[in-house]
């Protein structure tokens, strides 16, 4: 029969199957949105179209940097056990700052007169960032959940929990990077 | 592979922990069953209202008509008619078939048949059920709105489903309800997939799993991948309705900018075509197993059947364009989709031939589960073949949006899945509830369902072939459809007959569960060797005291090397050899 170590490995395996399937599901959601975005984009005669001229440049870039740094701090959280609490706070703080950045971005768009109702391209850009931000909320909720184990119930903190929350967080980072590149850079 | 120690839950004692808030996959399965049957009745009543209107336009619906529509004296009003066919489709697909085939049988069968004590994530499982309940609640709520529930058809194409086509909150509630449903399905799918991958008992290789599990597992994979696609479409449509975005708005509907209504059709069918296989795969799996069990033979070409189901699953992801031939796609695209669609008939024909091979020269026991399974063989044959007509672009240009399509998908989806669901219910009932349903009533139920069912759906195909469009309130105001009135009457009579026949089922089902005087079922009434039949009926809350070790396939029956008086062996027994 299974030894204790084997059992642990098994458990890692199965939870990681579950997280992988979950992320495939989420990828399909975002893939559909990307599909929509590309269809819109390629049916637009001129890029960028007038509706989104003057889109802010700095805020999305800042968001990207924040996301990248938070992925890095999460990695540290996972590997540097003594500093775990510190890196958790850092990651969580960065996640919140990302949301603040997004809020500023939306206000800036509104100020520039780029509204959801101004046609397909602004609709897509704004709705896409909303949906991504909603997932960041989910990611922050997962981080809070993880925080409980880092600060309070330390004995229940397992490698699997760290890995799974991490997978989700890095996934959101990758999605943002793709969004940034396709919507704000290229 | 190492095996996880699965601990045994504490025995639930109170009514609430036993029946309401349960983590036990068997209880959740039963909850889904009741939930699905409830919606089946609601959807069925709507079907009657629709059929009545098509046979007797302008005539009040008998008995309850004046109660439901007092302001028209009992006649179904035109806007309500649109709402009825929308809700009928939605309810049957997402709230009846899905909970019964995937929710109930998926939950009940997976752990029992692969030799596990429960699903891998029992809490997620429970959550999945409660999300379903919430989504059903929203849908019910939308029926009570002053402007009525959604009425754009289950496909909810814009512009029908935009604020212009559908003012009021009905359509928005529908979108939210389906979004919750999608979340529930995805949770279920993650759970099922992981459970099958990680909790199979020692020795239960993929090719020793019962085909029921194959069907449900493949369904879950499609669910995990494609339900989120619908989710994205639903979110965007909701934004169009609530936040003023213009993804799907064009022409007069768009105040500014230019969206594309056809984009929604793409998104919908990228999900929608896999969805029809999501619904049928569990039924195919169940039928593949039952045909073998009741022919007392191993399933013919077991491995080929499993692989064909897998091939269909893969192919089903690339054929969705056959729903959109009439949207002015480029001919290159329509032809590609046509070819790909036709390709699906190869694996379909393989497993269908395997079904016939299984029955061939078997010693068939015509018990009720077998009757219903044979019914599926028949109706699926018809449904699948009519799909080929529709798959051919040139024919579909004429048949699209006619009752021929309605007949096709009722044969494949409604008839096959419904009969498959009944087969499964009669078969697993003793293991679920510990008593046997009455065989005589079950057989009456079969024949009184099967005969009118074919009347209804053949009628639909004939009127479709004659050119009758779907979703028309009163087709007979058009001269070329006038002559179809008698056929419509016939179809309606058949529908009423089939509706009445379900009373036998409801009576049998409820009576057997609650009538304490009925005898306890044997552990293995059907003499079948899969794992769930090697334990008491009903299955104990811990499933298996000892996790079983599997040594042979699921349908080892009629083996000539078996000792006298025995014609099957359990999966835990070494395969007997000469
Ligand atoms: C066996 C091979 C099959 C083929 C070749 C096939 C082909 C098609 C085609 C070409 C259409 C589009 C017709 C039109 O709108 O003009 C269609 C519609 C449909 N099929 Fe099938 N089909 C097959 C099996 C199935 C199965 C197994 C199911 C369900 C379990 C199914 C469910 C549906 C549904 C629900 C629709 C219509 C949806 C709507 O417009 O509301 N089909 N089929
Ligand atoms: Cu299809």
Describe the structure.
With 186 residues, chain A is mainly α. Chain A is built from 5 helices and no strands. The longest helix of chain A is centred in the first third of the chain and has 39 residues. With 578 residues, chain B is mainly alpha-helical. Chain B has a single domain, classed as Cytochrome C Oxidase, Chain A, CATH 1.20.210. Chain B contains 15 helices and no strands. The chains are: A mainly alpha (186), B mainly alpha (578). The complex binds protoporphyrin IX containing FE and copper (II) ion (CU).
List key phrases describing it.
heterodimer; A: 186 residues; mainly alpha; Four Helix Bundle (Hemerythrin (Met), subunit A); 5 helices; 0% strand; B: 578 residues; Cytochrome C Oxidase, Chain A; 62% helix; globular; binds protoporphyrin IX containing FE; binds copper (II) ion
Question: How would you summarize the topology of this molecule?
Answer:
The complex is a heterodimer of chains A (about 190) and B (about 575).
Chain A: H1 4-42, H2 58-79, H3 84-111, H4 120-152, H5 159-185
Chain B: H1 15-20, H2 25-55, H3 65-68, H4 78-114, H5 122-143, H6 170-198, H7 211-242, H8 261-295, H9 302-315, H10 331-359, H11 368-391, H12 393-399, H13 403-433, H14 439-465, H15 485-514
Helix pairs in contact in B: 2-4, 2-5, 2-15, 4-6, 4-7, 4-8, 4-13, 5-6, 6-7, 7-8, 7-9, 8-9, 8-11, 8-13, 9-10, 10-11, 11-13, 11-14, 13-14, 14-15
């Amino acid at each position: 029969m299974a030894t204790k170590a084997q059992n642990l490995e098994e458990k890692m395996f199965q939870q990681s199957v579950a997280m992988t399937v979950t992320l495939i599901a989420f990828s399909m959601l975002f893939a559909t949105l990307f599909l929509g975005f590309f269809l819109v984009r390629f049916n637009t005669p001129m890029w960028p179209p007038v509706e989104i001229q003057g889109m802010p440049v700095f805020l999305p870039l800042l968001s990207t940097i924040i996301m990248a740094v938070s992925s890095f701090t999460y990695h540290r959280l996972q590997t540097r056990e003594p500093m775990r609490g510190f890196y958790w706070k850092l990651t969580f703080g960065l996640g919140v700052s990302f949301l603040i950045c997004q809020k500023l971005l939306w206000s800036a768009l509104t100020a520039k007169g780029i509204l959801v109702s101004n046609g397909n391209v602004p609709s897509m850009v704004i709705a896409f960032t909303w949906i991504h931000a909603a997932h960041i909320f989910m990611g922050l909720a997962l981080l809070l959940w993880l925080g409980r184990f880092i600060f309070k119930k330390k004995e229940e903190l397992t490698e699997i929990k760290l890995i799974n929350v991490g997978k989700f967080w890095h996934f959101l980072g990758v999605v943002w990077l793709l969004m940034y590149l396709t919507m704000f850079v290229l | 592979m190492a095996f996880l120690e699965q601990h045994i839950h504490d025995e639930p004692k109170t009514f609430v922990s036993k029946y309401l808030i349960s983590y036990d996959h068997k209880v959740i399965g039963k909850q889904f069953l009741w939930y699905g049957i409830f919606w089946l009745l609601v959807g069925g009543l709507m079907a009657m209202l629709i059929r009545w209107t098509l046979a007797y336009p302008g005539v009040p619906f008998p008995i309850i008509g004046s109660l439901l529509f007092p302001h028209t004296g009992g006649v179904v009003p035109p806007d309500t008619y649109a709402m009825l066919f929308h809700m009928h489709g939605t309810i049957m697909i997402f709230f009846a078939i899905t909970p019964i085939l995937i929710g109930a049988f998926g939950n009940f069968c997976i752990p029992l048949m692969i030799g596990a004590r429960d699903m891998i994530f029992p809490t997620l499982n429970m959550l999945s059920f409660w999300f379903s309940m919430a989504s059903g609640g929203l849908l019910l709520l939308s029926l009570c709105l002053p402007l009525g529930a959604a009425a754009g058809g289950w496909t909810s194409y814009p512009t029908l489903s935009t604020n212009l086509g559908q003012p009021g909150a009905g359509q928005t509630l529908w979108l939210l309800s389906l979004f919750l449903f999608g979340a529930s399905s995805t949770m279920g799918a993650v759970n099922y997939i992981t459970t099958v991958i990680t909790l199979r008992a020692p020795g239960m290789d993929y090719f020793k799993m019962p085909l029921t599990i194959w069907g449900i597992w493949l369904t879950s994979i499609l669910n995990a991948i494609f339900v989120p696609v619908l989710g994205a479409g639903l979110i965007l449509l909701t934004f169009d309705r609530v936040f003023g975005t213009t993804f799907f708005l064009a022409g007069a509907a768009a105040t500014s900018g230019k969206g594309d209504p056809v984009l929604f059709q793409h998104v919908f069918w990228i999900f929608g075509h896999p969805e029809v296989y999501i619904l049928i795969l569990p039924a195919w799996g169940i039928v593949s197993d039952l045909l073998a069990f009741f022919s007392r033979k191993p399933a013919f070409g077991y491995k080929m059947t499993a692989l064909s189901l897998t091939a269909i699953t893969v192919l089903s992801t690339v054929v969705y364009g056959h729903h959109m031939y009439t949207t002015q796609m480029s001919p290159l695209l329509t032809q590609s989709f046509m070819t790909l669609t036709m390709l699906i008939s190869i694996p379909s024909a393989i497993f269908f031939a395997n079904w016939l091979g299984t029955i061939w020269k078997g010693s068939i026991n015509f018990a009720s589960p077998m009757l219903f399974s044979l019914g599926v063989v028949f109706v699926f044959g018809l449904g699948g073949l009519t799909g080929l007509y529709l798959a051919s672009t040139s024919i579909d240009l004429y048949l699209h949006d006619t009752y021929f399509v309605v007949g096709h998908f009722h044969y494949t989806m409604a008839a096959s899945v419904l009969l498959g669901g009944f087969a499964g219910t009669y078969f697993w009932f003793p293991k679920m509830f510990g008593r046997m349903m009455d065989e005589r009533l079950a057989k009456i139920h079969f024949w009184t369902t099967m005969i009118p069912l074919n009347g209804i759906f053949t009628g639909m195909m004939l009127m479709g072939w004659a050119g009758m469009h779907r979703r028309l309130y009163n087709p007979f105001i058009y001269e070329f459809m006038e002559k179809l009135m008698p056929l419509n009457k016939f179809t309606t009579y058949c529908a009423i007959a089939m509706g009445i026949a379900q009373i036998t089922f409801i009576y049998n089902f409820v009576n057997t569960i609650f009538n304490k005087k009925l005898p306890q079922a044997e552990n293995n009434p059907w003499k079948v060797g899969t794992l769930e039949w090697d334990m008491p009926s009903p299955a104990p809350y811990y499933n298996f005291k000892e996790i079983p070790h599997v040594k042979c396939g699921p349908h080892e029956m009629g083996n000539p090397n078996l000792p006298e008086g025995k014609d099957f062996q359990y999966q835990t027994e070494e395969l007997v050899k000469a």
